[in-house]
Each structure stands twice: as C-alpha cells, then as structure tokens.
Amino acid sequence: MPRGSNMKIKYRTRDLDQIYEDKQPENINRRIEEATKIDEDKPALGQNYCLPCDKYFCEEKALQAHLKQKPHKRRLKALETEPHSQQIADWAAGVGPRKRKREETPTRSDKIVLEDPQHSTVRVGPRKGREMHPLDLEQMDTVHEEQSYLAVD
C-alpha cells in the first residue's frame, strides 16, 4: 500500500458541507468555542484556529500569514456557494418534490420572430429540416466572397 494513502486519513479535515453549516449564524459561535477550547494535544493549545480551512497553527503570526495565502482564499471562495446536497440531487433527477416552477420554454410548434427585419422567422423543431435563414442569399454570397478574399491574402 502506498504511503500517500495513510496521509489522507492522518490529515483529514472537515468537508465543505460541514464547514458551510458551521459558518451559519446560529452555529458559528458554538463551533469557535469548541475549536478554541484549551487542549494540550493541539498546536498552541488550540488557540490559533482557521475555521474555513479547519487548521490549527502554532502561533498567531503563522495564522496571519495563512490568511493571506492562496489555499485559504480558494477555500473561502469554495464556501461562498451552497454545497451539494442530496435534496438537490434528488430534485435534479426528478425524484423529489419540485421546489420551483420550471421556466416556460418554446415548444416545437411555437415560432420565434427575430427583431431584426433582415432575418426571417426561425421555427423551433427537430434538427433535420429545421428552417433557419438568418441572412438572405445576397448577404450570404457577399460574406462568402469576403471570406474567400481574406483567405487568398
């Protein structure tokens, strides 16, 4: 067994969803009190603690240096969004209850009229035989001539 596999377990930190729950206003004070409780087994008796990264530091200077580093900033950015949950996965799979109404999308029989008068209407339908004429034929010819002229140079 490779040595790295033991290191993952030895230095395991809390997952993003657990830390996200800890950062909620009703839980943050309780979590900070638990983390900074005096413990002889932790560095600096557990007084220098970074909540987002779930790390203890041996001195205040090391903690302040950590707060300016990129891994800490990445962790903060990852914690800005709500983490993945099983309820969201069930909703996406169509198993759970619908929390929000789906936006109405045009069906295959609907027509979408473009605002530009040079464009014709576009029928939304199956891929084969779909009518899409964004430019009239004269404009298409001039576009092809310009492209071939540019390709020659």
From TrEMBL:
Q: Name one GO biological process term.
A: ribosome biogenesis
| Main subcellular location of this protein, as a coarse class | cytoplasm
Report the residue ranges that make up the C2H2-type domain in this protein. Answer: 50-72
Q: Which key words tag this protein in UniProt?
A: Cytoplasm, Metal-binding, Nucleus, Ribosome biogenesis, Zinc, Zinc-finger
Name the segments for region: Disordered.
79-153
Query: Which InterPro entries does its entry note?
Result: C2H2-ZF_Maturation_Protein, Znf_C2H2_jaz, Znf_C2H2_sf, Znf_C2H2_type
Give GO MF terms, alphabetically. ribonucleoprotein complex binding; zinc ion binding
Cite the PROSITE patterns for this sequence.
ZINC_FINGER_C2H2_1
Presence of the UniProt keyword Nucleus in the record: yes
A Pfam family (short name) is zf-C2H2_jaz
Q: Spell out the Basic and acidic residues composition-biased ranges.
A: 102-118, 128-147
Instruction: Decide whether keyword Zinc-finger is in the record.
Output: yes
Q: Where in the cell is it found?
A: Cytoplasm; Nucleus
One GO cellular component from the entry?
cytoplasm
Say which family it is in: Belongs to the ZNF593/BUD20 C2H2-type zinc-finger protein family.
Q: What is the official name of this protein in its record? A: C2H2-type domain-containing protein
Organism, scientific name: Hymenolepis diminuta (Rat tapeworm)
